[in-house]
Every structure is written in structure tokens, then in C-alpha cells.
Amino acid sequence: MSQTNNCTIVIADDHPMILKGLFEELTSNGYIVVGQGTNGLEALELILKLKPMLAILDIDMPFLNGFEVVKTAKDKNVETKFIIQSFHKEADYVMQAKSMQLKGYLLKEDSFIEIEKCIKAVLNNESYFSTSFESGFLQNMSKELQQLKLLTPSEITILKQIAQQITTSAIADGLGISVRTIEKHRSNIINKLNLKNESNSLTSWAILNRNTIITL
Fold first, then answer.
1. Which CATH number applies to 8-133: 3.40.50.2300, 2.60.15.10, 2.102.10.10, 3.30.420.40?
2. Helix H or strand E segment including 82
3. Angle at 205 between CA 190 and CA 166, to 5 degrees
4. Considering the domain 150-213 in this protein, what is its CATH number?
5. pLDDT (tens digit, 9 = 90+) per residue, 57-68?
6. CA within 13 Å, CB half, 196
7. Best label site of 62, 92, 108, 129, fewest CB within 10 Å?
8. Which residues are CB-neighbours of 127 under 8 A, at least 6 positions away?
């Protein structure tokens, strides 16, 4: 039995068997599961009402996904700490988690031993991402986020529109500036992100990382 310090937890997943399994593992190891949600809206309501120390959330849930639950809860100044648990190993999901400063990201294939390590780390304000991720992969995600922080507010505005596949001319019209100015901004963004200076390289990168970009 691990030391849990009376940790209260809300869990949410739209897969009943996964939710049941997580509940049983947590409670049998001394954690206090105060609420269970089967969709993002239920999860958010439970978090706002119960104010648990920790919430373990699936990403893909109806009504609100896990990231949206976290963002809304943080906007309401909830002190709950969050762990994302997902099947997704793709870079854009990990990047989005890091951009939101989430400290815990687990894969559903992870053992309870790893879940418990993650819980302890997050409660101690430390980061813990699944050991299934290679360290080089995580370091690269962190490097890309640092590069994004080099962008000016104007460049971020333009990058968000590029991610939505809005054309250069349409961006220029919407912002009331020239196409040439937009092209200059695009060039600066490419340089700051260390992308290849090739046709559509920025657009392709922005679309791939759209979920992260919209959180900037």
C-alpha cells in the first residue's frame, strides 16, 4: 500500500471498462476517488464542484475533450492538478499537453505502477510523461515550444491563421496589411522555428501542430 496522503481524485473516460478498471486500481491502492465522469462536461462539473487534488482525464471524450476540460478549469482558477491518459502517442498531442503546461501524460497501455509514479510526481509539482516516449522525442517537443516563444504577437496571430489554412492574401485583407508584409512575417516565422525554407513547409507544419498553436 502506497502513501497517498488522502489524495482526492476525479477520473473521466468515455470507455466504461477503462473507467471501471482505473477506479478499482486507485481505490484498492488507497486513493480516494470522489467522482467519475463519462464525458468532458461531467468531468468539468465534478472538478468545479468537488475541487479534487487531482484529475485523471481521457483526451477523446464527448462534449469537451480532456484538453478543453483542463483549459476551462484553469480559466476558473481551480487548483486541481491534471494528468492526461490517452491512446495517443502523436507529437501534436504531446506538444499540446506541454504547451498547456500539463505535468502528467500517460498512455492507456501503462501499468498502474507507472500511473502511481506519475501521480506522485504531479502532486509534487514535477513532470512525468509515459516512459513509452523516448527522451529525445520529449526533448524535441520542448525545443519546439521554446522556439514558439520567440514569435512576436503579430507572428502568432498570423501563424494561427495559417494553421486554419487561410491564404496569405486573405490574412493580409483581414489584418489590413500588405501581402508582402505577411510574406515577410512568414519568412521570419520559418527562421525562428528552424523550418526548411521550402514551399508550403510552414503551412504543413502549422496544420500538423494546429492544436498546439491555437493554445498560444
1. 3.40.50.2300
2. strand 81-86
3. 90
4. 1.10.10.10
5. 999 999 999 999
6. 6
7. 62
8. 103, 104, 121
